[in-house]
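Suppose you are handed only these lines of text.
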Amino acid sequence: MEHTNGGDTSASAQAHSNIALAKYWGKRDAALNIPAVGSISITLDALHTDTRVTFDAGLTKDELWLDGREQQVGRAGLVLDLVRERAGIDLRARVVSENNFPTGAGLASSASGFAALAVAATAAAGIEATPRELSVLARRGSASAARSIFGGYAELHAGESTDGNDSFAEPLLDGDAWPLSVVVAITDPGQKAVSSTVGMQATSASSPFYPAWVESAPADLDRMRAAILAHDLETVGELAEHSCLALHSLMLTTRPALIYWNAATMSAIHAVRGLRAGGLPVYFTIDAGPQVKALCLPADAAAVASALTLVPGVQETRTSVLGPAAHLVAVP
Ligand code: ADP
Ligand code: DP6
Ligand code: CO
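From them, the structure of the protein bound to DP6 can be written out as follows.
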């Protein structure tokens, strides 16, 4: 809700994290943050960001408060600049945000964080934006955030234009049309040593596998889209594990190497494969961090969570259903 108070304008939004089943890694334009390959994700109900943006004539610079601590404004300032430009305003903003899960740990805080910021900042500036425009705006903050504008299953297009305006996400399938669950096994909630942005820059500059990734990803993306539309869990799972392992092969062959896994990550991978060998349809995926996400049917989620809780080094599990689109919430 937009809310005016003595010349200040505020809005609050909530957005959910997402995990890619067909991964993005590498940019075709770093300045505009345009991904080199398309990606497909599911939105996670259990992991979300709440962000309030206030444009305030009393501020001389933008502020970002994350989980109660002031941070460098960084790319949030870029998103605010784009909003100010469109709204024709020159006020600085205070951004106050909370993630209900670890930040910078491979759980896509940049996805929910920049999606919530795009929605809240646009509303606080008093301008209208279509979901597609919000997706492009969120992408400038973090490409995975383009997907968190939408709920359920979403696809982010790499696009072809030089301005990046055709690199947006769009809904692929409603979450209700094919409910799945994700059990997140947290092995280390600490912040990653190398951010996704810096890591993928190093990969594209140094991994000999990078050209093969850019060449092979589109066909895998097509297969993933078709398997999701067919509600074919076995194929989705096989493709998701392949995309995850191809991504981590890129990371391992980056110089210097990016090793986001720890011992518990590997143990959890084997636990998922063991469950599957025992007849349970469950598949793993891992982003730029040591946490393992297990994809399964909602009816199997409790059994998957119990098994992953027993894996040495797994500190906590969080079970999620598919989440909703980013949305405005009432300003408290
Ligand atoms: P992750 O795996 O969590 O997405 P990234 O390296 O991609 O890790 O991004 C982490 C960065 O995203 C943080 O250091 C911060 O700059 C930004 N970020 C995370 N949460 C928020 C938020 N709620 N609001 C604004 N920026 C955020
Ligand atoms: C491994 O979207 O966090 O999670 O665009 O530089 O902010 P920036 O990177 P980010 O990278 C996500 C990488 C990934 C795979 C994915 O989510 O597609
Ligand atoms: Co991220």
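What can we learn from it? The chain has nine helices and 15 strands. The radius of gyration is 19 Å.
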